[in-house]
Amino acid sequence: MAHIEERPYGSWPSPIRPADMPTGSLRLGRARYVGDEIWWAESVPAERGRTAVFRAGAEAPALAAPWSARSRVHEYGGGAWTPLDGDRFAFVEQSDQRVYVASPDTAPMPVTPDDPRACFGDLVFADGDLWGVREIHARAHETPARGIVRIPLDGGEVTSVVAGSDFVAFPAPRAGRLAWIAWDHPDMPWDAAELRIGAIGADGTVAAWTVAAGGRASAGHPRVSALQPEWTGDDELVFLQDPPLAVPLADGTRPARWNLFSCHVSADGRAADPEPIFPADGDTGGALWQLGARWFAPLPNDRILAVMTNGRSQLAVIDRATGEVTELETPLTGDVLVHDARGGRVLLTGAGERVPGGLWQLDIDAKSLEAVRGGELADDALAAVARPMTFAGPNGPVHTFYYAPHHPGFRAPRGELPPALVLVHGGPTGHVTGDVSPAIAFFTSRGIGVLDVNYGGSTGYGRAYRERLAGAWGIADVADVRAAAEGLVERGLADPARLAIKGGSAGGWTVLCALADTDVFSAGISRYGVADLRMLLAETHDFEARYLDSLVGPWPEAEADYIARSPLSRPEALRTPLLILQGSEDPVVPPSQSEALRDAVRANGVPHAYLLFEGEGHGFRRAETIERCFAAELAFLGSALGFAPSGVPALALDGA
What we know:
- Helices cover 14% and strands 35% of the residues.
- The two termini are 44 Å apart.
- It is an alpha+beta fold.
């Protein structure tokens, strides 16, 4: 029988090191079939976080260093590479945002002008042409000009095919017509986005279009979000729409969910009324933070593979001819995206409660799933397995996933309750799905419980849950994380005196508000967190420039709320030990926010540390940064919560 040693929670030695974190969780991008091969994009932490394009089975990447395929359209990018003909591919180079054409054996050559104002993304090769989204910046604080463009592969003039809206996505050309998604300020794409269709004229442009679905005051609903148009033939378009269901479910309800719809499209680009394909109380769709995300794929024989999410995700095949829906038994239950399909084979990225994130090939007819990249645990014995938990909150149920402390070689003294780290995802329109995660096992294997919270405002539970945050950011989210943390204590799963909270970006805002407005937490970790709404409004990028209209209220009418809710407006309330982590080149939440926060806690004499990482943006990518963050977080938690962590150096705290 293996010996089990008794040690206090938080002090268990773990073989999962901070140095393992950069490669512990893969950052995968677009995947495609290229000939008989599988290609994909992946961030390489050891190479300063550049995004390479890899080929399965090849010794060298198709896109070698120092090239990096990363777009800055809408700031979060997406769709930064696409295969062309043969083994050629096009990509957006991170450094200058120009589009290049390359192959594994030829050096990249630019095919767009050298224009520092322009960037490209959402690249699509269709009907023999390269299409994409172009964003042109003029002056600071002005809305960039965006539109769908056609990009000649010989370096000729880029054609502006259609514009006329603040944001565009999903260019889908077919047989002389173009479908795409568009939305305007103050909406975000998950609030109200239109599916537009128009005929491409002799001059290569779309002069007029019709709105086939989505938008404001659509289908009897004030706002509808359309997503992901896909042609299934020359006259049919399949797409996603939320919320209207033309047909009620079996119980008579009409839940506000992203579901599959289709419409017939005439030769001149006119669309018939949308028809539901499969009404379901689950989301096929999600928040469009990055361009090119896909949640379904048409298959041969009039079938569709779809991801349906209700907390966790389920893959299903919909047979349109028979109406039969077959749920597939796979280990993938979270963050599942559909990248490409060829015959009955499909490329997916995703994770599950017992498999970490990876790139997968699903053979639907053979009912087999194989990992192409990732998908394997370094140590099964230390895997952190989540338990779904729902707590009662003042705004309704709060959905969470709890990871208990776990190490086969250690246990805590009888009667000791573990410290717990409450995680707050970013967005705030985001989602966590209880996947097995080396980043979470880093803490649970040391005797620290982790509670991952889908506070009101999260996706994956329908529009009503998502809109719980409308006008209430900094209030409803704080109430939900508080209810979840206190519920964990009430169930006897955490020490009430050793609760910590951690979040990044919008999650960092909730962390800071929770520290200022509640007395539940004994420590906080903010990764590039929002601390002052007026500063965010003045400094952030255009994609989120009007996001706060729905989360707080329109500016300047709601200025009083912007001031009252911001933690930096009441610095005297910031009395909890705090670790602040920030990138020097973050355009979303600039360093000025974190520096003002540091100055406030310093003035209060609060134990704190501020770590600024040169060259990092919004979301850390470099190996040395990621390693340093996890080591600092563990050391900080030990100091703030009163345990001696193993395997990391002490972190000097100002004000301690």
